[in-house]
Amino acid sequence: MTIKIAIAGSSGRMGRMLIEAVIAAKDCQLFAAFDRENSPAIGSDAAAFLGKNCGVNISANLNLLAGADVLIDFTRPEGTLQHLSACQKHDVNMIIGTTGFEETGKATITAAADKIAIVHAYNMSAGVNLLVKLLEVAAKTLNTGYDIEILEMHHRMKVDAPSGTALMLGDAVAGAMGQKLEDCAVYDRHGITGERDPSSIGFATLRGGDVIGDHTVIFAGMGERIEISHKASNRNIYAQGSIRAARFLSGQQTGLFDMQDVLGLS
Ligand SMILES: NC(=O)C1=CN([C@@H]2O[C@H](COP(=O)(O)OP(=O)(O)OC[C@H]3O[C@@H](n4cnc5c(N)ncnc54)[C@H](OP(=O)(O)O)[C@@H]3O)[C@@H](O)[C@H]2O)C=CC1
Ligand SMILES: O=C(O)C1=N[C@H](C(=O)O)C[C@H](O)C1
């Protein structure tokens, strides 16, 4: 069976990576490609940046979703929520990689999963999702006497902080220790902060250059330090994860899933 895939944010870093990966995947067909109305790419072939013609022109008309199996969206929260409405209208499943949602946006996605099937994950790579499992073991084993800090670095163009992945890793660690991340997260330190609260999970955000995505969770004890890291060196890991998610969604009618479900890790 061929999976008919539409891509949102076609001219973005992830949009282009996804177009290349979908065209290369034997069981996938690039069905539609979207950008914003004011994008200079509107009307051009979606594979033009590869020096190829794939026969799908970039459009802002979301009615072209009709007949697609799934829309893959790596844009911005406000764009994703517009695309989500269009997916419900046309009964198209959705894969959401966008980060930076407020609680209301997350609730809208959860509600939409009563009508269509959605994979929503802040990191589509197999490696990061394995890290989540490793962290659950680490957090349960090192649950007293170790200070937990999460460090992430991304390229200078990234607009949200901390990264969605850092928040997901923090959530996994907090959950494994019977805590809620919102009750123990420390996102800023400046000035006379006082001693570290042993029950806190600290976050540090670095931005610079073209770093694709580095994440390290540190368990700092007295006499030893454990660091569990993932470093991305190519965005194709996210595109391949998205294609796995598209295969997973084939045949699903409704429901909200994450990459742990897709990879059989849940
Ligand atoms: N889950 C995962 O595995 C990963 C998630 N991400 C996340 O994906 C998102 C995109 O990342 P990246 O590709 O680097 O970003 P880019 O800025 O390179 O691309 C974003 C694309 O979305 C478009 N866009 C922005 N706002 C809207 C809108 N309101 N409506 C429709 N389209 C819109 C942009 O168009 P324009 O240029 O016209 O603004 C652009 O084409 C981020 O949230 C990032 O954190 C990234 C990598 C992996
Ligand atoms: O913006 C990015 O580039 C990335 N965003 C995601 C995040 O916020 O975690 C995933 C990956 O780290 C790359």
From TrEMBL:
Pathway: Amino-acid biosynthesis; L-lysine biosynthesis via DAP pathway; (S)-tetrahydrodipicolinate from L-aspartate: step 4/4. Belongs to the DapB family. NAD(+) binds at residues 9-14, 35, 97-99, 121-124. Pfam families: DapB_C, DapB_N. The active site is at residues 154, 158. Keywords: Amino-acid biosynthesis, Cytoplasm, Diaminopimelate biosynthesis, Lysine biosynthesis, NAD, NADP, Oxidoreductase. The gene is dapB. GO terms for cellular component: cytosol. NADP(+) binds at residue 36. This is 4-hydroxy-tetrahydrodipicolinate reductase.
